[in-house]
Amino acid sequence: xxxxPSDRDCVSATKDAVACEFGEGLALLNLKSNIxxxxxxxxxxxxxLIQ
Length: 51
Prior knowledge:
18% helix
């Protein structure tokens, strides 16, 4: 996935995902699509900020 956010983009967490700690990062499950995502430490930090 390649995305270059601009200063006009707004990032928000979805209510359709659950997260659990996984090593230094997080594992996310999208409850609508049943797709798992893994976040490294930086991604986990950002996820916590937007909650």
